[in-house]
Amino acid sequence: MRNIFGHIWTVRRVVVLYGALVLCGWLIGEYLRNSVFPEMHTISKPTMYNMVSGVFAIFVVVAAIPFVPGAEIGFALLMLFGGKASLLVYMGMVSALMLSFLVARLVPTPILSNCLNWIGLKKASGFVSKIDALAPEERLDQYAALLPEPVGKLIVKNRYLVLATAFNLPGNTLIGGGGGLAFMAGSSGLFGFWAYLAVVLCAVAPIPVLFLLM
User: Between 159-167 and 193-204, two packed helices, what is the crossing angle to 10 degrees?
Assistant: First the structure.
């Protein structure tokens, strides 16, 4: 019974956190749509430059947060501004995924473990603490063991391709979104920096390129 209530409490925390993030995104979007965009034709170029820079910085930070629908926000910006915003949205998504990845690498394992424990993910917290002291080859075996043997080894072996696919899955917000996937990739220690950057550059490109060509 205690385990059941523990799982319910964990789900409630995640749902409340996700709901709060979505609400904040909706409020920001409504503010931009109702207060900023209608007045754009009256704004001077220096002010416009500062505004775009501020929106870009906010977009990068927000899209880097786990469970925030960063890809959907980028797609909405592309729908709103068209191909002329494709390069900005592309750079923003790449920056967001790199930011989340690097933050995960810099967060000390005890802090990450305590955060997972606070959310209620006690098994994940213990797993993070366990693999921290392992060599890279041993980490691969531990991650592969989380799934049935053929599937686990196949996913770990092709982890870069799996990650690129996950970045582009519709509704990937349910498994952490781009920011969450990037954070998990960084904290796992299974992804090299330059190879991960190459994956991000390729995975984020299709939609912005499509809008650019259109």
Answer: 40
| Helix, strand, coil share of the chain (percent; to 5) | 85, 0, 15
Three-state DSSP class for residue 10: helix
CB neighbour list of residue 24: distance below 8 Å, 6 or more residues apart: none
Angle, to 10 degrees, between the axis of helix 2-31 and the axis of helix 109-119? 100
CA-to-CA separations, 27 to 3, 21, 31, 96, 103, in angstroms, rounded: 36, 10, 6, 21, 26
The torsion region of residue 62 among left (phi > 0), alpha (psi -120 to 50) and beta comes to alpha
Query: Environment class of residue 208 by beta-carbon count within 10 Å: exposed (0-12), middle (13-18) or buried (19+)?
Result: buried
Contact 176, 183 (CB under 8 A): yes
Q: Position 60: which residue type? A: V
Least confident interval from 22-31, 108-117, 160-169: 22-31
How confident is the model over 41-47, as a mean pLDDT? 62
State pTM to two decimals: 0.73
CA distance 81 to 78: 5
Largest CA distance in the chain: 62
| Distance separating alpha carbons of residues 104 and 149, to the nearest angstrom | 27
Structure tokens at 19: 């709901």
Whether the CB-CB separation of 181 and 171 falls below 8 Å is answered with no
